[in-house]
Design brief:
alpha+beta; Creatine Amidinohydrolase, Chain A, domain 1; Creatine Amidinohydrolase; four-stranded mixed β-sheet; 16 strands; globular
């Protein structure tokens, strides 16, 4: 980070703290969390600071806390013991870190207890730090997804801030998006020489590693796109397969990107694959074009549902009137999830708050098959970053379910569907910033058109 | 895994269970542990089953437990709910898994409590599962490094089994070693075109990913080898630098390799680098040659200390008699850690037991600077896998310490040392199996000689 960037970051950090002070009239303490043991205490998973801590503190400090009140920030952090120098090198001291993040004061952790009275907080993910939170606040802790009292007030304040991104967070999100574009190009380029899914994953994640970033979520790189969160990478790549890759980078400060592309292993979509791909792309493009401040995100989801239903009628897979099909969730037999979600410090931003962030106050998840998986149900505002990710999947657990087959027997043309057996899963996903004037696709440099995708796959053959 | 391999694994798993039954006369319950949340509950770190569970169960099952008694194994595991099929695909059912691991019976988790009476256990690393262990056993839990009563008896029994590897574990360890050889070759080959350390790390870890393995420990890839466990990868690679890479693969069943090589960024060691490299290599080779059943591992460490001291005298960096220098820990100013450790399911095998595994009963860590970092202090037996990893480091925190400079003023030739400023850190590490006849270097296919290393680095230029 150069001096100008650091100055800008500090300015935004101070603004976030000021804005919080305008929303709550009690002190807030946010913990960063600690490392989690993997095999034994000294062998840990990579550290990831709590997103709420990162939002106000700006740096992924371990075992730290910040106390926010009236726009001021106090940092609580213990200096590393001298003995750790041998193993971890010279570490910056508390005072240096305090300056780096624009803290107004800094103390050892032991001082926190005496300054914790009446403070609200958000529960972190790691259990040991949760115990510490409860001990220092001297009260039982509400879990983040069901806060009450001042913790609920704080949660709502944090949501209102984190929903819309400022210049500092946008700079990070753009960086994550730019690297993620390169990740996917590398995956396509590696496909012709790959034996198994893992080879493509390796090519994609090596871009992340060489950028000193991490993945924002476990990479999905699979010829079984119908398994939505597949974590298997052992399947061989075969000529007729589609490869679905949902991989995104996270910057060192914690900001995410979330992108999916689906490409043909052979470098050439089959006619059936191309037909479905173009349909998903039509939904993708139409949904993005509809993004503008003031629109209901659920309406964008329903637009995708109508386009998918209509296209599947044109392809002879569904029959009936589009509005009726959507009404009875027939589109959701194939487009089995929501059109997208918030993106920020978390790939599903603030999902630790359950639906408090994703759903406008007073709204709850629908019990409808075709709406219940929607993660975001708000009026879009400038500064929000959302994913748009329509898809088509043939999930055996859904399509072979006898009850479902019976319910939809009149509208699904099963014998026609069989012709599309080589389309197990397709998803096309980009990250879109809501702007005053409409939208900006942060991942626009990654092609979506079938022909361009084919060219990127074939580049190495 | 083919049928023969599976048959061999089952045979070994049954033998492990039988052997345990010969050592303890109470039931044992081992938990696998659960996933740990990263940002929010659904976004987790990659799952890693407890090593002790893996040793007896053979598969990395999540949220499972096994009960061992009289050589029989009962599996406790809940089937995944039907709703998870959409996200994770079809999962094998409890009965299938029970057959796969040769369980004698299988139950849902809810049954465990009724079969937990009088059982010993080992505390897992994740805190939520620890709470479950305590709740089900209906007693406070001893931490793994300080067990008591039947938990201590169990710990000692597990140590006696895991110290020496059987055919099934050796097959895995050989696989980890073979992949790790390729990892390092890839790192050397990537160096000439790398900008920063992260580029080399990316090339190395992409070999791990494409093999569907994970890293056995956080990779160290650094031009600051003097920081022993550096987790930074942002430094540019410059012509005069040495790059130290300590990277090892872990198989999908959890078995580790641990290898370090140090190579010149330019493809050519400087004369000073070559001199120290050859000295470290001489220690490495001599220590490996000394491995044989019956020898004290600490004597191998002291052999390395003498060779390092003697070589540093020859180079004019130390002065005095070798035995005196070792006696006063002068070698440890530069060779700042132990000669190695056990390797198995953990890269520092069974380090969750503290020194109970690494140190023969009745032995404790030395308070001597030159011995206190030794992780293994046992008589070697056939079947043990150990690392041999001598090194030379110029750690500022040690060499600039005024007390240390004063204490060693007569034996360190500081002005001579200054000539070796381009040698910040060198380590050469291999994995050696103790055999009946002596030893087998599992990682022998990775060259160690300076000339061969230079050739592997230069291969791409």
């Amino acid at each position: 980070m150069n001096t100008t960037q650091h100055y800008d970051l500090l300015k935004n950090l101070r603004q976030r703290r000021q804005k919080l002070a305008g929303l709550v009239n009690f002190p807030t303490i946010l913990w960063s969390g600690g490392r989690l043991s993997r095999n034994y205490p000294a062998l840990t998973y990579p550290f990831r600071a709590s997103s709420h801590f990162l939002y106000f503190a700006g740096l992924p400090l371990e075992n730290a806390a910040v106390r926010l009140e009236s726009g001021k920030l106090e940092l609580f952090l213990d200096d590393a013991p001298l003995s750790s120098t041998l193993w971890h090198g010279e570490m910056p001291k508390r005072a240096e870190i305090a300056e780096l993040i624009g803290a107004d004061a800094a103390f050892p952790m032991a001082e926190l207890k005496s300054r914790a009275k009446g403070a609200a907080t958000v529960a972190v993910q790691d259990y040991l730090t949760q115990l510490q939170q409860s001990e220092i606040l001297d009260r039982p802790l509400f879990l983040a997804k069901s806060p009450a009292g001042i913790d609920l007030e704080l949660t709502e304040a944090i949501i209102s801030l984190r929903l819309c991104h400022d210049a500092a967070s946008l700079a990070e999100l753009r960086q994550a998006a730019a690297v993620t574009v390169e990740i996917h190009k590398a995956g396509m380029a590696a496909t012709p020489t790959a034996r198994i899914e893992a080879d493509v994953r390796a090519a994609m994640e090596s871009v992340i590693i060489s950028q000193n970033m991490t993945y924002a979520y476990p990479s999905i790189v699979t010829v079984h796109g119908e398994v939505l969160h597949s974590e298997h990478y052992h399947h061989p790549l075969q000529a007729g397969d589609l490869l679905l890759a949902d991989v995104g980078a996270e910057t060192s400060m914690g900001w995410a990107a979330d992108v999916t592309r689906t490409w043909p292993v052979s470098g050439k979509f089959s006619p059936t694959q191309k037909a479905i791909y173009d349909l998903v792309l039509a939904a993708h493009d139409a949904c993005i074009a509809r993004i503008i401040p003031g629109i209901e995100y659920q309406d964008i989801h329903l637009l995708a549902a109508r386009i998918m239903a209509s296209g599947l009628v044109d392809l002879g897979i569904l029959r009936g009137h589009v509005e009726d099909l959507v009404e009875m969730d027939a589109h959701a037999l194939f487009f089995v999830h929501g059109i997208g979600h918030l993106i920020g410090l978390d790939v599903h931003d603030m999902e630790d708050f359950g639906d408090l962030a994703g759903y406008e106050k007073g709204r709850v998840r629908s019990s409808r098959f075709g709406l219940g998986y929607l993660r975001l149900n708000r009026v879009l505002q400038a500064g929000m970053l959302v994913s748009i990710e329509p898809g088509f999947y043939q999930v055996p657990a859904i399509l072979n379910d006898l009850e479902i087959r019976y319910k939809y027997q009149e509208v699904v043309v099963w014998e026609r569907l069989e012709k599309f057996a080589d389309v197990r899963g397709i998803r096309i996903e980009d990250d879109i910033l809501v702007t005053e004037g409409g939208r900006e696709v942060l991942t626009a440099k990654l092609p979506t058109k079938a022909l361009e995708i084919e060219e990127l796959v074939a580049v190495n053959t």
